[in-house]
Amino acid sequence: MNKYQLLCLSFFVLNFSFAQITGNVTANTNEALPFVNVYLNDTYTGTTTNEEGNYTLDISKAGDYTIVFQYLGFKTLKKEVSITSFPYALDAKLVEENITLNEVVINSEENPANQIIKNTIAKRKGVLEKLSEYKANFYSRGLIKIKNAPEKIFGQDVDEMLDVELDSTRSGIIYLSETISEIEYKKSRRLKEKILASKVSGDSNGFSFNTASDVDYNFYDNTIELENNVVSPIADYAFSYYKYKLEGTFYDDNNNLINKILITPKRDNDAAFSGYIYIVEDQWVIYAADVSISGKRSGIPPIDVFKIKQTFSFSETDSVWALISQTLDFKYGLFGFNGEGRYTSVYSDYNFTPEFSDKNFTREVLSFEENSNKKDSLFWDTKRPVPLTVEESTDYVRKDSIQLVKESKPYLDSIDTKHNTFKLGDVLGGYSYQNSHKNYRFSIDSPIEKISFNTVQGWNGTVGMRYTKNYDEYKRYFSIAGDINYGEADDRLRGTANARYKFNNINNRFISLSGGVKTEQFNSSNPISKTENLVSTLIFEDNYMKLYDRSFVQGQYYQEIINGVRLNSTLGFERRKALFNNSDYVLVNEVRDAYTSNNPLDETNFTSKPFNTHNIAKLNVNTTINFAQDYLSYPDGKYNIPNSKYPILSLGYEKGFAATDSNYNFDQFKARLRQRIDLGNKGEFEYNAQGGLFSNADTIAFMDYHHFNGNQTNVKLDGSYLDSFKNLPYYGLSTNNSYAELHTEYRFNGYILNKIPLINKLNFNLILGAKAAFTHENKPYSEYSIGVDNIGFGKFRFLRVDYVRSYQSGFVNDAVMFGISF
Length: 822
What we know:
Blueprint (H helix, E strand, L loop, with lengths): L2 H16 L2 E7 L9 E4 L5 E3 L5 E4 L5 E8 L6 E7 L4 E2 L2 E3 L8 H5 L4 H19 L2 E15 L4 E2 L2 E2 H5 L9 E15 L5 E9 L22 E3 L3 E3 L10 E10 L5 E9 L8 E7 L5 E9 H4 L4 E13 L4 E15 L2 E15 L12 E5 L8 H7 L6 H17 L2 H12 L5 H4 L1 E5 L4 E5 L7 E3 L3 E13 L6 E11 L4 E11 L7 E12 L8 H9 L8 E16 L2 E14 L35 E13 L3 E5 L2 E5 L6 E10 L8 E13 L5 E12 L19 E2 L22 E9 L17 E11 L5 E13 L2 E12 L3 E10 L2
Parallel strand pairs: 1-7, 1-8, 13-23, 23-34, 39-44
Antiparallel strand pairs: 1-4, 2-3, 2-5, 5-6, 9-12, 9-22, 10-11, 12-13, 14-15, 16-17, 17-18, 18-19, 19-20, 20-21, 21-22, 24-25, 25-27, 26-27, 27-28, 28-29, 29-30, 30-31, 31-32, 32-33, 33-36, 34-35, 36-37, 37-38, 38-40, 40-41, 41-42, 42-43, 43-44
Helix pairs in contact: 1-6, 1-7
């Protein structure tokens, strides 16, 4: 036995010696039973056994108690005990449940399971009302393992990337964490949680991301939110998704008849569970659930299977069946990484008649008690409701010991020496240098990574450099970044630099100063990427990217002023100069002069300028408002949660002033609304509406117009479908007058295609889209599209295809667009 195992065993023994009631639960075959519910009769004070069948039950006073042992598939056991001193040992041996199927049920012409489910659905809203407010204690443990990991992926060392030490089979624990918290819930508000203790294996300063809201899977809701909205087996419309079969009945310890019902999805790719749901006869409530769903059905391709197991307990005092334990098991696999994980949750000490005041619920839905991550082993040994397994104890001891070594200066220096060693491949692949002890990093990009082509610069390349210095755990940092760009056709060297200081990770306040010379698209949103332009010019000879020369210096300030309200402002000075084509290089054909000009106002004019060279100062002030925004307060930062019930509102003001040509001065006011609306099992609807108006802008420079994000390449690589048109020329509707645009998409997420025979085998998702643009000078422009995404094979399903038709005073044209959907 090595030293880590000895330390682990000592830790394990201590864990038992501090507990009030401890024991081991087995089957009558002496096999250990994991995740058995152990609680005081007629209360919600309890715990569960770990994977080895061990448990600890926190009892504060000596006395007479009835201890209940409850486990699916086994008869519930009650043990009367008289406790005079602690610790108190109490083992239990459970006998398998005798599940029978009545002969009358077998001979019934009507499926009896259907009526049971109908009765349960009818009671669904009433149960939700009973659970409309409560307080409880919550415990969570998360464990993720990796198995047979590759040594390298994409040229990177896997052990270094994961920062773990794997065993000889390339397996091990990559994440282990625990939380103890208090939760409060009130209908129509988010679950509120205060974490009292947090522990992360191998990180004594870490804060666990195991939260109650992340595992708040309520089958009484119509849908369970994973990546897709998975339909509950007792949803109002559940019979459209499930088949039911009564597999047997048994009586619990209180003589309640429990129906064991097999649930099966009606169609292959529907977002629906498989497994068992247990319903209490006459009360028509959930006794337990043991269900699973594939990653394909849940919309999480890397997951092979995801299992949810829930157990409920009844309290005569409250007349409520409440969730007391939940386990989430999953298996995953992607890019050669395979493994499994488990999240164990225990709910206890419910109070269903809390006296909440208006101050109980604010927009802060998660907070940490001070020093919650500094609790010592004595605290965890006495408060942890589910004992650690030997494997988990070993991981804590080993990683905590390793952490002391990894934080030492000699170790950090040795790692940096290995990482900072210059290799021949770094000449082309890029190089980085770091000092982990002083917490700074410097890097130079690969000189071949950003090679591109456009008709102004010809072949051009960019080399970027950056330096970052981190100051503390609150994400305060200072960074300097710059890049140098050279174009062979115009024989011009350009460069930019940026310095930024971020003050904290609470309101994310930062200031920055940037400047330099660069080629810039007339539409600052960069509607055509360098990759798209390279392909469209060299292969198809379509010159869509229009550029001008911009010399600038600019300051920026950003901050969340109050919760949900963010301010972003910039002030700068620019010199703009027109550019012309300098290259007629083609890759496929030998025909020269095939490219259009660099003038977006007249692509056939190769000699005139779209604007005169000028200087101008520009001010931008933008405010974004997330109404009713909730947030998580971690000690090292604030993490915002937008409220999908309300749109996100953006308001902006832009002013051009002090121009060398006063005709180029202008004012612009703009606004935008954006929202994603969850439609449950029917998918989701999303819209983006924006508009604006100019003042004193009759003769402004073309780059200051409002440009609609168009597309003429028939591809979309960035996934931003709700910010751009699919079939509109890039500068076809640009305006310096009032304007408006609307983008909408309805994603059915399998609601339609999964119901069509044969097509449902493909697991595609249907998407309908409608877009419109309005300007003062033009007739309204509109697009209508129908498409499918989730195209691919196996776990790699990120392709999307759309058919789009365009209209402007009648039909304009149609197109097929290929893209990526995230």
